[in-house]
Amino acid sequence: MMNKPSRTGVTHVLDAYSYSLKGLRAAWRHEVAFRQETALAAVLIPLALWLGTSASERAILIASVVMVIVVELLNSAIEAIVDRISTELHPLSGQAKDLGSAAVMLSMLLCLGCWAIIAAQRFL
């Protein structure tokens, strides 16, 4: 098997950017959870600018929201790989998908915790 010639420099960066946009488009088109989390981020990120009383608080609030989206993208990638390998039910396929789902849940709990702590500090 021959290796694909690798590009370097600006061409490599532009190719990587193009692949990233392609991935975001695919997630938007095929993943309901990604669209829901992105819509929620569109509300929460501006709210973070208001709720946070310092640059650090704002960064924590925004980063926790973005982390949910990143983990969702990784979960979607795992699901796509598992489905590509086989649509047949297999315990390891189910386990891989469950682990990805657990990662999304934990990222959401982390996000919720960050928002709760900062909101409590501000209002209590």
UniProtKB/TrEMBL annotation:
Q: Where are the bilayer-spanning segments?
A: 59-78, 99-118
- The primary location reported for this protein is membrane
Superkingdom, natural source: Bacteria
Topology in the lipid bilayer is annotated as: Multi-pass membrane protein
Q: Which reaction does it catalyse?
A: a 1,2-diacyl-sn-glycerol + ATP = a 1,2-diacyl-sn-glycero-3-phosphate + ADP + H(+)
Its required cofactor(s), as named, are: Mg(2+)
Q: Which InterPro entries match?
A: DAGK, DAGK_prok, DAGK_sf
Identify the keywords attached in UniProt to this record, alphabetized. ATP-binding, Cell inner membrane, Cell membrane, Kinase, Lipid biosynthesis, Lipid metabolism, Magnesium, Membrane, Metal-binding, Nucleotide-binding, Phospholipid biosynthesis, Phospholipid metabolism, Transferase, Transmembrane, Transmembrane helix
Q: What class of enzyme is it?
A: transferase
Q: EC number(s) for this protein? A: 2.7.1.107
Under the GO molecular function aspect, what terms does this record hold?
kinase activity
Q: Where in the cell is it found?
A: Cell inner membrane
Sorted alphabetically, which PANTHER family does this protein's record hold?
DIACYLGLYCEROL KINASE
What family does the entry list?
Answer: Belongs to the bacterial diacylglycerol kinase family.
Function per UniProt? Catalyzes the ATP-dependent phosphorylation of sn-l,2-diacylglycerol (DAG) to phosphatidic acid. Involved in the recycling of diacylglycerol produced as a by-product during membrane-derived oligosaccharide (MDO) biosynthesis.
Question: This protein is called what?
Answer: Diacylglycerol kinase
